[in-house]
Amino acid sequence: MQRKLRGDKIEKRRHAELDVEGLRSRCVRWARDHEMALTEARPNLPDQLNDRQADSWEPLLAIAERVGPAWGSLAREAAIAICDADAADLDQAELAEELLRDCRDIFAGPAVRRSNGDNIESDRIASEDLTNRLLALEGRPWTEANRGRPITQHWLGRRLSTFSIVSGAVRFNDGRNLRGFRIEQFADAWRRYLPE
In DSSP terms, which residues pair with 149 in a beta bridge? Predict the structure, then answer.
């Protein structure tokens, strides 16, 4: 899946073929029958939830506990798992956007020289050089983003492939063929994820 562009129009599919009215009326009746108990309920909230998460989960946990103790326990486990997964997904999404932003800055920056004196073209870069340039950025997470270790070419390739950016053979002006990236491979991801 890709993030849609601002101008993209998509068909929404939120309504399934089911007896929505019947389900709604049964939910309303259950809520009315248990209104007093739910109003007074103080469910046991997991310590792993932050304040905002606890506020969101409290009514759901109250309902689950009202249905039965086993459901309350399952609901607490679900709350912890979902909130942990959300935090991990958010961290990975933020890291992915930082990666795209730093790649864009590297392509937009001045061409630099390799250690052997050759120029790096501004519209293409070898995987090794991009990895090294990311690692050289001060104050950026790349020296520990790989489970506490510096990123590698393999790590970089896996992360960029989630945006359909895949390294391939790139011919450089000096005649070398290396695995690398061309600037146009990043254009769609930059448009979708960094709309500045």
Answer: 146
| 79 close to 94: Cβ distance less than 8 angstroms | no
**pLDDT confidence of residue 115:** 45
Q: Of 160, 151, 153, 152, which is closest to residue 186 (Cα–Cα)?
A: 160
Contact present, 153 and 128 (Cβ < 8 Å): yes
C-alpha–C-alpha distance, residues 190 and 105, integer Å: 11
Q: What's the confidence (pLDDT) of residue 120?
A: 55
Q: Where are the domains of the chain?
A: 20-87, 90-193
What is the CB neighbour count within 10 angstroms for residue 124? 20
One DSSP character per residue, 137-191 reads: STT-GGGTTBTTB---HHHHHHHHHTTT---EEEE-TTS-EEEEEEGGGGHHHHH
Q: State the average pLDDT over residues 34-63.
A: 88
Q: Which two tokens stand for residue 192?
A: 């979708």
CA dist 189 → 4, 23, 46, 97, 176 (Å): 10, 41, 38, 9, 27
Whether the predicted pLDDT of 37 surpasses 80: yes
Buried b (16+ CB within 10 A) or exposed e, 131-149: bbbbeeeeeeebbebbeee
pLDDT at residue 113 in the model:
47
Q: pTM (2 decimals)? A: 0.56
